[in-house]
Amino acid sequence: MAVIRLRTALAALAMLGGAALVQAQTVPANVDQARMTAADGEPGQWMGPGRTYGEQRYSPLDQINAGNVTDLGLAWYADIAVDRGVEASPLMIDGVLYNIEPWNVTVAYDAKTGEELWRYDPQVDREKGRDACCDIVTRGLAAWKGNIYIATLDGRLIALDAKTGTPVWSVNTFDPVWPYTITGAPRVFDGKVVIGNGGAEGAARGYVTAYDAESGDKLWRFYTVPGDPSKPQENSGLDMAAKTWNGEWWKRGGGGTVWDSIVYDPELDLVYIGVGNGGPWPLQYRSPGGGDNLFLSSIVALKADTGDYVWHYQTVPGDEWDYTATQSMILADLTIDGRERKVLMQAPKNGYFYVIDRATGELISANNFVPVSWTTGIDMETGRPNVNPEARYGPVPVILTPGPGGGHNWNPMAYSPKTGLAYFPVTEMYMAYSLNPDFQQTPGMMGQLGISTTGYDLSRAAATEYAAKHNKAWLTAWDPVSQTERWRVPYPVRGSGGILVTGGNIVFQGTVRGTLAAYAADTGDLLWEMPVQQVPIAAPISYTVDGEQYIAVNAGWGGGLAHSTSVKSLGFPLSPSPRLLVFKLGGSASLPAVAGAGNELVRPEETGAGAEVIARGEQLFAQHCSTCHGERALGGIKDLRLMSPDTRSEFYDIVLHGARREKGMASFGDVLSQEDAEAIYAYLVHRSNEDWDSIAADK
Fold first, then answer.
1. Whole-model pTM?
2. Are the C-beta atoms of 157 and 195 separated by less than 8 Å?
3. Domain 613-698 fold
4. What local confidence, expressed as pLDDT, does residue 637 receive?
5. Would you call 59 exposed, middle or buried from its count of C-beta atoms within 10 A (0-12, 13-18, 19+)?
6. Domain range list for the chain
7. Active site residue: 322, 357, 457, 522, which one?
8. Which CATH class is domain 1-121+133-172+410-430+470-587?
9. Is 357 marked active-site?
10. pLDDT in tens, 40-94
């Protein structure tokens, strides 16, 4: 694969004795294998997405602690221009904080003062926003030997000079056949940059790729789904996997994208990847005749040097519920039954907390952390779930929990070796699953799923209403040894953020109350909470500069859960833009006041369209729009029942001509006609009037 070379690599500097410290101070972002492996010796740094290779998101810092956290205040903040979800955790290396925003705009700040040092805009193709199932987000960046690495929504892996922000090299990581995007953070270890991608909702075939950190040269690639069985498979693991598929899945792609968690173990020299859902969702459309469909919904261990398959554990054989295993994976050493075990922990969408031997892939234990109905438990002899036969849905809707948002989604989990507990946001979510009888593989994202996504019949509408009324959310503290919950903090709706836990006995989390909150790590007691005019859905980090401890977090509502939880349901006005927020003890900065809730709502007049046109608009909305704007338009990134008169007047320019592409709304003019757009508009006006009494009451 061609690499665009933009300057020569930094010359190698000696790393002997005291020279290491000098080099770290003179070369920005001077992170290497030795420094990352010994990251606990520099607790004031945050040099990787999860701080250390084990990705525990635990900071040993304790200057801010349960006894003085009430003195925490805002030190500085920076506005983010694009009003979309902000999911990234920054890095902080040697006094410089590196952040990444929607559209992959990357910014370096003085970590103490907030002074902007440089800014780089990769000019991401705005049309790729249409392929992103869950907002134009990114979850982080990486650093290695003077470079900052970013992976863009449109598929480029770019190395930036950490001092200036200028590109060093850039490589396109995509196979152009499929609708890929990248929202995950790259990982760097032993001179390799590893990145996956998203796109399983469009049935894209999943893979993960390693590149040379210095040159951008491709080193290896591991496909997670087998290709055409009449041809040689790319690796031996796929020969085994191909036996678990049926039909002609390779023509559709199969899914299985590695869109988030990737973890490296320097002790075993293994890299672990979390694999996503299948595409299309229903097993009978994807693999007629059934089958486990490896390596969908699996944790796979690969040799770090070559990308060769070592072992796998499949959390959901034959997945058809979007139960991805892409959620955060944490490495730790636990004493279980009197024996120290090197484990990998994960709490994925399917509602079970897994503890796995990370050397062998053996399942050590599993227990559900949220009510589940798709299975009756895990068979510990085989490691397989006992799937409820009724969960294998057909045309008639079946209500299951968890829903596709999961018991736990992407929001990062944290683990404290001090308390021995894992902390993560939990959602009790229900979903009415049913086949789409008119399924055809089309460019529309939801059209690729193969399921009915909105009210084609009364039974599905009733099931959807039931599901919405029974959703719950909380923060949990989970004991991975006993597989029990120690404490929980309930939330009014789902959508609270990722987790940081510190040596000061504090769990930090952004909440749907529009706050950053600090809880006692051992008891869950609320210690401190500050309104921040946004929902910090990203996971915070902690660092020190000149002897002071800071907490930094990105606060910007959006992402996957925003598709079904509207801003209106949060109950407070959001700031006009997301922000990077940085706190310290005695911080005295303040946020500007937020204006009122916006313009007065104006009830739209019905379009006069007949029932057939509205029904057609409903189906088109489900196929092309509901991924971002919610089932039956109930929420989403933008609640289209609440369109202003100006938005209504521009509706066709927005939908067909990309009038708001810079804000993430790409044109759909290549897949929708004027008549299609008119049908969708008629449906949205109908939905607005249908819900108007409740909308007006909430307003």
1. 0.90
2. yes
3. Cytochrome Bc1 Complex; Chain D, domain 2 (1.10.760)
4. 67
5. buried
6. 1-121+133-172+410-430+470-587, 194-260+268-394+402-408, 613-698
7. 322
8. mainly beta
9. no
10. 999 999 999 999 999 999 999 999 999 999 999 999 999 999 888 999 999 999 9
